Structure prediction request, 374 residues.
Amino acid sequence: MARWATAAGCVLTLILCTPSHAQTASKPPATHAPPRSTVTQGPSAQPQAARLVRPDGSVSSARVKIRPDAVPIRPNDSLNQVLQRNRLSSDPSTVEAIRRQNPTLDLDQLHTHAGQHLYIPKVAGTTRGGGDHLLQIQDPNLARVQLQQDRKEIVALQQKTAAHKGAMFASPAVAVRHQRTLNDVSLASRRLEKFTPSMNARDVALLDFQLSRVQRIADPAVKVHGETAMLFSTTRVATLEQSAQPIRSVLAVTGRSGVTYEDLRREVTVVVSGAARSPQPPPLRVYMLPAAMVERPNDYPDEVLLRLLRSLTFTSLTTPSSERVLFSDLALWVGPDDAYDVMLKRLRQGQLSTRPLPIRESSPRVIEVKFTVP
Prediction:
């Protein structure tokens, strides 16, 4: 049963089909009445990438940041039911953004995909008014929207820390390393924008996590585990540099001529076998999370862990099972199918047997990971 809907697209789309998935033609967008709006824009005005609207279609003044999410499709679900449940507008642009992120799903017959996951944008954090607000997407290229929003936060932090170096950093050398790292991450993010038509939903979720984690570690106002120093220390900047390693691999590769998006990804193949003289184990699901989450799960709420677990888990059961994965620091393991809640509980209790999976520029084109189960 598929757990991952690949995404593809052109300049304003987000549709990718990887070698392990057959691409299906997208259906024309379903007809939805456009929302009424109390705000008009001049001919030269650039629309926002995402905004909040009220149920009557009028634009809300609340600021909005989106994040990628994966939600289960329930039996007898219709697209309108999913939109309502997740507080999403039913306007044509938002529906088109979701359609392009899920090219293997028939959104007009969503009930036929019960048990699979639908990839959608969601509002990050809480907003005033709660259920009175709907999320409306105005740029169907959700990967580009996400990159731009994450980079905007990093650039703002970079400007803030540069203006108060003496009060924030333990030494000028630490400040230089901090700024250099944020410069590299910001530039890599900008270069990635040209590849957004080739990004699938897993890539978007991974990049969002990586950029958000870099921003969090780089923010002197955020205290990280074990940090006692009042100023940004040498130890803290080393942690920042380590968290930025996958993004710096992106920067190194994209600095060359003739680079394609596939140069930024590696094929990960998982093979499961039984113990000596044991029968071949049944098909298993390959679960995957960022290594930082597995190392310190208590730093993240259940909702965030489950969201990434659903988004990153491999599509096909073993064995073998393969996915193409962007440069990142990951941990993976195998277990029964559709056991997300069980895996979360085991993660919290430290009962998972995981394998580290750092993926870098120097990694082989195909990375094979082997598991032996009783």
Remarks:
- Residues 142-163 form the longest helix (22 residues).
- The chain has eleven helices and ten strands.
